[in-house]
Amino acid sequence: xxxxxxxxxxxxxxxxxxxxxxxxxxxxxxxxxxxVGLDDTAxxxxxxxxxxxxxxxxxxxxxxASVARITEFLGTAWGTRLIRGxxxxxxxxxxxxxxxxxxxxxxxxxxxxxxxxxxxxxxYKLARAAVDSLxxxxxxxxxxDNFPTDRYVLAGxxxxxxxxxxxxxxxxxxGVTVDQxxxxxxxxxxxxVLSHVAYRSGYLADxxxxxxxxxxxxxLVLWDLCHSAGSVPVNLDLDGVDLAVGCSYKYLNxxxxxxxxxxxxxxxxxxxxxxxxxxxxxxxxxxxxxxxxPAAGIRRFMSGTPAIVGMLAMQDTIAMIDExxxxxxxAKSVALTEFALDLVDAWLxxxxxxxxxxxxxxxxxxxxxxDHPAMRQVTRILWEHDVIPDFRAPEGLRIxxxxxxxxxxxxxxxxxxxxxxxxxILLGQAGLGSPAGL
Length: 438
Description:
By secondary structure, the chain is α/β, with parallel strands linked by helices. It has helices at 3-9, 13-25, 41-44, 64-77, 85-88, 93-106, 119-132, 148-161, 178-184, 207-216, 314-324, 326-348, 375-384, 408-426; strands at 52-53, 113-115, 139-143, 164-168, 189-195, 220-224, 243-246, 261-264, 354-355, 367-371, 387-388, 390-392, 396-400. The chain has 14 helices and 13 strands. It has a seven-stranded mixed beta sheet with strand order 2-8-7-6-5-3-4, sandwiched between helices. A hairpin with a 3-residue loop joins strand 12 (390-392) and strand 13. Pathway: Amino-acid degradation; L-kynurenine degradation; L-alanine and anthranilate from L-kynurenine: step 1/1; Cofactor biosynthesis; NAD(+) biosynthesis; quinolinate from L-kynurenine: step 2/3.
């Protein structure tokens, strides 16, 4: 029995009918065919498994255009141009892609975004530059439920510079509010580091209000955009944001380990000294002189040789977002998460599942998290059957819905699979064959 057959048999076909109708009228639905494995046997192969993917907020699907782009690069740009490629394009590529990303998804004007390093390294460089620019201040403000990298990096910087960490207590089912920030910042605050979208709950922070509150205290703010870039509109310039970092392998589909991006507001660039001084950030890259002189502009925040191959794939999704418009991407994201919540309420809540994400879409990013003590086991079984959400301790299953590649029927199938597996576990049937419909 297929998933759809079993659902109809249970009298729950209204949700499926809704999903099919939404897919028919979805103005972004045709973009789904641009991804490997979705209506494209030429790339994925005719025997590729049918995968229900609910983890685009951790690693996005590859685009078909990126397969062609990388293949062409290996054979032509690298294969025939060889080292001449640096003069042809590669030297400028981190800034070219940075400007494109800034325009399409970040609300950032030219010359303020660069591609390079991992999120962790980029976060370290910008945070360290920020606190060093305010030597008379002694505190960094952060929250207890921020992503581990953010907390670990800031603890290391505090130890290096003799600074104090001031913690905002944030709930794993919520996020940081402007009132909490106002209560935490003061005359000793040098830097506030927060996530735009909380990695666990999906809580969407109020960037303009929090940024304004930080500035009222005379401090700088650095926003982590890892779970928002490419899914939620960001207006860095308009909101007066000082610094931002984010990864490119989630909603930007850059691929595993693709380099991060960094944003530094133009007015701040001359005043900040980044701590990892490498040749790519020098004023004259090929002078090879005895002393380091930083480049003007955003290039000064680069360090070593950029990962050119690693940054190729994100260009195709950035181009799609620019073509569609980030507001349209967000509108579909909201519709998908609203539908997923409807399914959760109908199927999972009666089995003891709780929703660990904001109900109001104005306070929610592109994923939702549902909690139950059995979710670690549920996730393991689902992965074995090519249904792929992810798990976050202690008991959260995250449902990540990428607007350009996820359909409503795929969302339906995924949540229905969670329902079937959880039901089997609660009835003591786990491991007794495939869950219904899988």
